[in-house]
Each structure stands twice: as C-alpha cells, then as structure tokens.
Amino acid sequence: MLAAISGSYVIPAMYSLSPNPHSTPFQDKVFEDTYDTVLMAIGRRALTEETAVSNAGVKVIPENAKIDSDNEQTNIPNVFAVGDVLHEKPELTPVAVQAGKLLAARLYGNGTTQMDYQNVATTVFTPLEYGCVGLSEEKAEELYGADNLEIYHAYYKPTEFFIPQRNPQRCYLKVVCERAAPQKVLGMHFIGPNAGEVIQGYAAAVKCGLTFETLESTVGIHPTLAEEFTRVTITKRSGEDPTPQSCCS
Q1: Domain map of the chain by residue range?
Q2: Is 87 one of the catalytic residues?
Q3: By its UniProt entry, which SUPFAM superfamilies does this protein fall under (predicted)?
Q4: Domain 121-238: what homologous superfamily?
Q5: Is there a contact between 92 and 124 (Cβ–Cβ < 8 Å)?
Q6: Which pTM value belongs to this model?
Q7: Could you report the per-residue pLDDT of 128-165, keeping only the tens digit for each?
Q8: Catalytic option among 22, 87, 189, 222
Q9: Is 56 in contact with 79 (CB distance < 8 Å)?
Q10: Is residue 85 a contact partner of residue 48, using CB atoms and an 8 Å limit?
Q11: Which of 198, 227, 228 is closest to 133 using CA atoms?
C-alpha cells in the first residue's frame, strides 16, 4: 500500500534493525525529522507460518519465511508456490497471475513454458509516476562494471507543462546500456505522467533484446511522452547538462 500525504509533520520514524520478520517493527532506534510529504509503504509478509507449510516438509528461508524455488516447485515435489511467497521474485500481482497460468498449463495441459522473472516492468503510481524495466544503474554496475556501461539520461518537459511553465527537472528518464555496440539495453527508467503506459510498451522491446542503436533509429510520435526515449543522446560519462534547451527537449 502506498500513500502520499500533504502537510507538515514531525514523524518519529521507528525501524526494526532485526532481520527476523516476526519481530516487533517498532524497536531499536528512533529517527525524528520534519517532512512536507509522508510516503507510507506498508508492504506485506509471507504467511507460511500461519499456513503451516512446514507440516508438509516445505522449507522456507529463515530470514523472511519465503520459499526458494526456481520453477514454482518447492523441495516437496508435489507442492508448488506462486506469487509473493517466493524468495527473490517480484512481489507483483501480474507476476503471480502469469506464473500461476503457466504452472497450471505445465501440470494439466502438457505445457512447457516456464515463468520468466527477468525484465518484469513495474510502476509506482505517485502523482508523477515512476516506471522501470530491467536493471537499475547500480545493479548493472555490480554485474557488468561501470566501465562496460553507457548511461543515457535526460530531463524533459511534457506538453502539459508548457502553459503553466512547470520545471522540466521534475521529469527524468534514463537508459542503461552495454557500452559496446550495438549497446544492448539493460534497463529503462522513466519519471513523469503516465509512466506505466510508457514503460509497458518498452518492456516488450527490452524482452526482445532492444539495443540503443535501434532505439535512436526509431522515429518518435510527436508530441508524446514515450518519444523522449527515442530522443535521448546525452550520457552521464560526457558530463553534459541533460536539461532540455528548447520546447522539444
């Protein structure tokens, strides 16, 4: 659950420093500050203890009570799990639905397709949305090394920002690529109106092996938000200012 609350607040933020998911959350340390917006991400936990999966012999990860599985099959061959209960899998409803459909097809319909948990797109539905697919810049650096990456980025001004002359630095996009040609796209990130709609379309392209060479050769639809990805040329490595210099970014 996510909520943004306007106003000025003094919030005593209390966080558990214990890895035990069943410990009391309000303990150990208190941080206090004043905020103009409070973002509450309540989250959820796996109910494997309440459902007593251990009685069937199913093993769980002690730190989070989740089940470690490659193809939704637990350590007990005839017990399967899908959704948020799986360890290190995206906690998203569409992921659970897709995995469940494919599992049912394999069990009862002679299907062979496994769930692909890589490059799953998602969006945070805040007033200016944030959408992404693929790797973050930090994760890409961890896997590939900073010297082997090229990070394209830009601020942009949506059409609806022109009349009120809103600050273009509220909207931002980033493309994480391999440095070597043809620069395979490893991640795409977008902050702005309708980010979910924009990223949903590019998610299919990323799963198909999108490269930056293909992206920059694509003609955008003007004026749209999604076209900003086809216009980005500035890299972080260059040190150039990514702020738009004209009405068309």
Answers
A1: 53-109, 121-238
A2: no
A3: FAD/NAD(P)-binding domain, FAD/NAD-linked reductases, dimerisation (C-terminal) domain
A4: FAD/NAD-linked reductase, C-terminal dimerisation domain (3.30.390.30)
A5: no
A6: 0.81
A7: 999 999 999 999 999 999 999 999 999 998 887 777 66
A8: 222
A9: yes
A10: yes
A11: 198
